[in-house]
Design brief:
12 helices; alpha+beta; Vanillyl-alcohol Oxidase, Chain A, domain 3; Uridine Diphospho-n-acetylenolpyruvylglucosamine Reductase, domain 3; about 500 residues; Uridine Diphospho-n-acetylenolpyruvylglucosamine Reductase, domain 2; globular; homodimer; 3 domains
């Protein structure tokens, strides 16, 4: 990567930024820059400075300076992009941290939406809704409750509950463009439009997709749709004892999703994934990694997990409705899986961080704790896998919501991770009706020599293998190679990026 | 509009097109050009030639010539954009008609999708699915069965049934860009990607929105998602006797949509809209337009309609499920509306063009027949409102899915249309959970002197009034003024358009 700006440019820019947003919010000390440049795996790019504007106008001002002086920026919201690079930019850059924009700007319970800034976390939003005793809830991430609601949606994160396709349920983006100008998408571009927070497409070409998994602008506000709390919630928990039952289970779940029996994400977790949420690698038993098959079996038996495990969340508009849905699920899954049902709490205030919680909007750090799987110390109360040198890399690939494909992918991935000496943590998330989000974790300990390299090699192998077999990634991190597809498509994206960002402030070309 | 090409350019282009796709498929005779330049209201732009390429390669070749010689093109699929301009371009242009691309390329019943070309009509697709005895169905337009499945989705048309937000349920676009190059969107840009027809977003910025309600490319193929035929279908038909009951009904319907009781579009039709599907203006009774209030009342009473009418489609995964949904709907609507329930056919082959049909994928021309409302001759068996000089203009505006807003809009619109001497046909379509698509028809007879002008004046007044009150359009036609919003947003769209189409082949700037 060659520098586009002269050697003295960052300093000139830093002086301007200090004048604009205050000395206290332009961080340049080595310790902080090293923190911001540390992820859960080895990375090379350096953080040149760390800007913390207070509001949209300050974001615009910061971006204008970068545009003028040709300084590359890397926008982050809460910086919890663990497993995809945390706060680390894809190239040497100044981090533009919008976490101070943390207001809940608007909330409408009847119309079931909330408008927030990018610093608002899942925990903050859930607490707010609880405080106002709202009977609506947000889809929560499987990542950390400390993550940004907006950034996770823009990165096309998957969520629990009825609005799990998170990018599919946001609208009215406020975006700072690479030249510092501000635009609003959808109907929000019309002042006074009553449907700005209520409808996605607006009129004319729909641009929201340009600001998702891209670096074509900084989103400083968005509307997030919420789901009404159900009259009667029932959760089906299922497990299967062995691999051969997986395909039929997957096909049954697809049928339930297509028929609209559940609007929620249906997660399928293998045993390692399930275990990694409730425990750590059994170093205490003097077991040396990788985990022997017999120990794996014993651990899942002790925890009451099957080889594969999952839930189906049912949102009843009446008791009879919930009962009918329950019966449909029992019929669909009963032949292959052990299924248990439990009723959820009648009131949102009673929803807790148990199995039902995430399906009802309870923000939690259960999954994020799995970043400590291979650490020899216990999971701390405040998670910071970057600081704690947790080794953690996500691979996120799209797979048909089909039993045969699910088995193929799970077999390939488990074999490759085991060959590389890692426990294969595999989740297949039925966020939508026709595709599964295969989310694979490589967990290790960065404090051990050589592990960074070994994990990276394993990541690259799995990535290449899945792409080659027809399973491209649906989400990438700084560790990911640019997926190889049509060249003309890449050129189209580059042309659009160049039109918006001719100096490559947000995006290298 | 000034011409960008020299006077002899179209002739040079025409010679090249003839060589590329054959003389028989380059139409330049006055009669045909006049046909193509005729809509259901007065329009000015001229059609300079009419190209009918046979396949994607020929589309690319035609576009390349236009790009090279700077000839403006206007792509049409089936040209049934009645009420929005039919086949008429927004400026003098050569019509690029892709109706010969009419193959059903792929169909997968298990995964519930079909991949089609833009010439495939709703009728053709429904017939195909019936022929192969598929247990899945497509969302059908409220327009004509002869319309293009792809074009309607790209124009963000509303459909009946569970996938009524038609643009929200397509993926894997194949697009001919303004320079004639071909790209594929979503995962379709990766050769061999197993999820190309199964997931929308792909990886990286999502570009599909750029090719919707735009003229940034010609879509020559797309995947359309289908819904499984339900085990037990029940349709609730409701009506209310008077206006004051509308707000509570609207709010009840929003509650049903938000709670997921019905995945389908919930239509609300006023009496004129309902009558216009089953009858014509009562000229036979010597009634002179506009329709007197007493006759309107008598007509709706005779037809068994209420002041407002609608349906709620229920898709049961079991008998008990359908029964439970039915009870929820009865509870929600019973206080304000008369509600009747009927069971749908158990097998798709028995679904007919009755009230249930559209909710189960039966393509029909019932709504399209309403273009003949003010004609003094009966509706012909083959609808051609352009030829038959039907006067028909749509206004499509987004309104909150809220009782008070629905009443405000309906009152304003009815009063304005009546003041202008037209029967106010108003539909409020609950396609999604939070917004209503207000679809207003101005129907008249183009054979009467002065009616074109009167209708256009009425259109412009309603358009301005609704925009001013915070209800911008969600779909526009060649009659529509460019909606006035943020200038920087318009510039952003123009910048993107310029990057893709520097010579303005598809889009004037």
């Amino acid at each position: 990567m060659t520098w586009r700006y002269a050697a003295n440019m960052p300093e000139a820019a830093i002086a301007r930024w200090r004048a604009l947003i205050g000395d206290d919010h332009v961080w340049t000390d080595d310790a902080r820059l090293r923190d911001a440049g540390t992820a859960t795996f080895a990375t090379k790019p350096r953080v040149l400075a760390w800007l913390r504007p207070a509001n949209t106008a300050e974001v615009q001002a910061c971006v204008k300076v970068a545009h003028e002086l040709r300084v590359p920026l890397h926008p982050i919201s809460r910086g919890k992009n663990w497993g995809y690079g945390s706060r680390v930019p894809p190239r040497d850059a100044v981090v533009l941290d919008v976490s101070r924009l943390d207001r809940i700007v608007d909330f409408d319970e009847r119309m079931a939406y909330v408008t927030v800034e990018p610093g608002v976390t899942f925990r903050q939003l859930a607490t707010y809704l609880r405080t106002v005793r709202a009977r609506v809830f947000a889809s929560v991430t499987g990542g950390t409750a400390g993550g940004s609601v907006i950034a996770n949606a823009l990165e096309r994160g998957d969520g629990a509950g009825p609005l799990g396709d998170r990018f599919g349920h946001i609208c009215a983006l406020e975006v700072v463009l690479p030249d510092g100008a501000l635009v609003h998408t959808g109907f929000a571009r019309f002042p006074g439009a009553t449907t700005a927070p209520l409808a996605r497409w607006g009129v004319g070409p729909h641009l929201d997709g340009l600001f998702s998994q891209s670096a074509l602008g900084v989103v400083t506000r968005a509307t997030i749709w919420l789901a009404p709390y159900p009259r009667h919630f029932v959760m089906a928990s299922w497990s299967i004892a062995d691999e051969p039952r997986l395909p039929a289970t997957v096909n049954a779940l697809r049928g339930l999703k297509l028929a609209g029996v559940t609007p929620a994400t249906v997660p399928l977790w293998n045993d390692i994934k399930a275990l990694s949420l409730v425990t750590q690698y059994p170093f205490a038993d003097a077991t040396t990694p990788p985990l022997p098959a017999a120990v794996r079996q014993a651990m899942r038996d002790a925890a009451g997990f099957g080889r594969w495990n999952g839930t189906v969340s049912l949102y009843g508009a009446s008791r009879a409705h919930a009962d009918a849905l329950r019966e449909v699920v029992a019929d669909a899954l009963g032949a292959t899986a052990d299924v248990r049902f439990r009723e959820g709490p009648e009131h949102p205030l009673d929803a807790a961080e148990d199995d039902c919680g995430p399906s009802l909007g309870v923000a939690h750090d259960r999954s994020a704790a799995s970043t400590y799987w291979r650490k020899r110390r216990p999971v701390p109360s405040t998670l910071d896998p970057d600081r704690d040198r947790c080794g953690f890399i996500w691979l996120s690939h799209a797979v048909p919501f089909d039993g045969a494909h699910a088995s193929t992918v799970s077999d390939l991935v488990e074999a490759e991770l085991e060959r590389s000496g890692f426990e294969p943590s595999v989740a297949l998330l039925g966020v939508t009706e026709r595709a599964l989000s295969a989310v694979i974790a490589i967990a290790y300990d960065r404090e051990l020599d050589g592990e960074d390299d070994r994990a990276r090699t394993c990541h690259d192998r799995v990535h290449a293998m899945l792409c080659e077999r027809g399973y491209p990634p649906f989400r990438t991190g700084v560790q990911s190679p640019r997926p190889a597809g049509e060249q003309r498509y890449d050129q189209l994206v580059d042309d659009i990026a160049h039109a918006l960002d001719p100096h490559g402030i947000f995006r290298s070309r």
